[in-house]
Every structure is written in C-alpha cells, then in structure tokens.
Design brief:
Length: 199
C-alpha cells in the first residue's frame, strides 16, 4: 500500500468490515476486508461446535463435507443468478455439489462481490481452471492466516460447482483429504459463504 493513498483509493467505504494484520518482515501492514453489504445474515450458520463423525451429507450427487469448526457467513446470491436451484439441498437434478476455496486476503472482497475470475489465477498444477476441493481442511491449506482483535483466523470460501463442467484432477487420499477439482469457467463456481476458522 502506498502511503499517499487513502482507504477510499483502495475501495474501502463507510460501513465496510475492515480487518488489519501486521506482517513480521518489514513491518508493513496488509488490509483484509469484505463489505458487509455483500452478506445475507439470514443464512449465516455456526458450525463451531458441530461434530459430523460418521454422518453423511450429499449435495449435487457428491459427498458434502460440512465446514465444522467455523462460522459461515452467507454471501448474497439472490440477485446474481436466474434462479437458485443450484444452491439446493433436496437432491434436485439442478443442484450443484459443494466445494471450498482458500485464497489470499487481497482476493477475498472481489470474490465475494463478483465471483471468481480465472484470468487472475496464476498456477495450474493440474491444468487450467479455478481450483477447489470438496474437503474444507484441504482448502484451509491455501488460506492465509490473519489476526483480528488479537486472535488468529483462516478464511475459506464455500462454493457450489457446476457438475457438468467440473473436473476431478486429483483423488482424495485414504483419509479423505487432498481431492482437487478444476472449473474451466468463471460462472461455473459460485461462492455463497465465507467460512472463518479460529486457528
């Protein structure tokens, strides 16, 4: 961040949620925020004390690993898409499977506001596409730690993925971790929640 620029120059407006954390090297300060207007609090969910051992959930024909241990803040999606059948949980054929995506703090606001942008992706270890995983613990490996009010957190996005275009590029190991999916088009992976985990 340049010292001559204001918060407004970075797109921060009155009422934005602003988290600050300090980097050890060089003493620089990085900014982390998502505009509170992008959230739909009616669908927030507290997974912090939930245990899913032995329970099975399915979304879009794929196993759904719930993000236990986090607080999930719902992103507004009602006015973004033609319908929300992709977001269903009844087994409807238009329902999409759940996946997770970990990212850098400076990408979070744009993803919550505009969705994913393949042109901003830099590494394609298993082929071109937006990477995600059905396992929240695998996604957390790509989440950057940040400190807010003296506590450290991870943030990952909860998404739905179009099953017709997603590609399984790496299968899970024996513990269920490490499966990766790629999505070749921006609109075929849709963020609908921000999962915040205490570290």
């Amino acid at each position: 961040m340049k010292n001559s620029l204001t918060l407004g120059d970075h797109g921060v407006r009155n009422g934005n949620v602003l988290h600050m954390f300090f980097r050890q090297l060089g003493g620089g300060c990085a900014m982390y925020y998502i505009d509170k207007e992008l959230f739909d609090t009616r669908f927030n969910y507290d997974f912090t004390d939930i245990k899913d051992d032995g329970k099975k959930f399915v979304r879009g024909g794929k196993n759904y690993s719930r993000p236990t241990g986090c607080k999930r803040y719902a992103i507004k999606v009602n006015d973004k898409y033609e319908d929300n059948k992709w977001l269903g949980c009844s087994g409807d054929i238009k329902e999409w499977p759940v996946a997770y995506h970990g990212t850098k703090e400076n990408n979070s606001h744009d993803i919550a506001k505009n969705g994913f942008d393949l042109s901003k992706c830099q590494r394609f270890a298993y082929g071109r596409g937006i990477y995600c995983t059905p396992d929240p613990e695998t996604a957390r490996l790509y989440a950057k730690e940040y400190v807010f009010q003296g506590k450290t957190y991870h943030l990952i996005f909860q998404t739905r993925v179009n099953p017709k275009t997603m590609v399984v590029v790496k299968k899970a190991d024996l513990n269920g971790h490490g499966e990766y999916w790629t999505v070749p088009e921006n609109g075929h992976i849709r963020p609908y929640g921000v999962c915040v985990y205490p570290v």
